[in-house]
Amino acid sequence: MRRINFSSLQNAVTKLEKSTTAFAELFSAGPNTNLEQLNNLLYQSERKLLGDGLPRRPWYKHTIYAPGFYTGYGVKTLPGVREAIEQRNFVEAQQQIEIVSKTIEAFNQQVEAANKILMMK
Fold it and tell me: Looking at residue 18, which CATH number applies to its domain?
């Protein structure tokens, strides 16, 4: 069995956890005069979680969740990664880990931008 390296995904999630914790603290600190700017940014944030499409299903763009390839409409989290592992396609799994890591990093940049807006008060 080939080893799969999850470190890029773990690092991306760790950074996102820190950013979202900071966001929660900044948001709960009180009113902000930049709410329209913040709302516009947050409204567009989930788009950062879209990729070019899942293997064998390019019409599903979301890298975090999608209907499973073999489960019909049942949802799979990290579908590109999970399904590649389930199929024992470890090369594809590693590729999907890198794709998901980059999309989480892009989403994290949105959260960081929101944090900067909240710091402006």
Answer: 1.20.930.40
CA–CA distance, 56 with 59 (Å, rounded to integer): 9
Which of 73, 65, 57 is closest to 104 using CA atoms? 65
Query: What is the three-class DSSP state of 2?
Result: coil
Instruction: Please report whether residue 28 resides in a domain.
Output: yes
Residue 77, domain extent? 7-120
Which residue shows structure tokens 């913040």? 38
Structure tokens at 74: 């049942």
Tens of pLDDT, residues 92-120: 999 999 999 999 999 999 999 999 999 98
Residue 2: inside a domain, yes or no? Answer: no
Task: Please tell me the pTM assigned to this model.
Answer: 0.90
* CA–CA distance, 97 with 99 (Å, rounded to integer): 5
Closest C-alpha among 96, 117, 99, 97 to residue 43: 117
